[in-house]
Amino acid sequence: MPETLNARVLVVQHMPGDFTDRFAERLDSICELDVSEAERAGTVGPAEAIIAQGGSHLLPREDDGVEISYRLTDDEPVHNVRPAADVTFEAGAAVCTEPLVGVVLSGMGYDGAVGAEHLAEAGGTVLAQEPAEASIAGMPKHTIETGVVDGVFPTSEMTDEIVDIVADE
């Protein structure tokens, strides 16, 4: 995503804690956004992205229109995973200002589907990866089945779709 978009991005990846810091470093090296692994508590501002630490849920707490404050929790796994996209989506739907966009990509199971419903109820936009191109189609497939998805795209088109949505807000 372009830095000029000034998006505040929260990423939940089903990944062990020993890998999320390296994942954040790798994304930071190839991305225009400033990408880092989430700390126990902090903020994410314009043109920044944070990656949930493996083994901890990422909970947005407050959005002042510029920065989103968050904290990590060690609450029980959801869908047998921690971090879980459903946890972040539901909390984000309750506190984040527009534009609110949730994206569900390749992954196993149902994580993301219930959270997507919360995002849609809050007026957000929900996008899903084309299941046929996903390495593991479960998460986008189950999210699409909720009926709240606004668009289904291959990953090669996802960034442009997000930019269009955020730029229109």
UniProtKB/TrEMBL annotation:
UniProt EC number: 3.1.1.61
CDD domains xref list: CheB_Rec
Keywords: Hydrolase
Residue ranges constituting the CheB-type methylesterase domain according to the UniProt record: 1-169
GO MF term (any one): protein-glutamate methylesterase activity
UniProt-listed Pfam families: CheB_methylest
Highest taxon of source: Archaea
Catalytic activity: [protein]-L-glutamate 5-O-methyl ester + H2O = L-glutamyl-[protein] + methanol + H(+)
Listed name of the protein: protein-glutamate methylesterase
Species in which this protein is naturally found: Halovenus salina
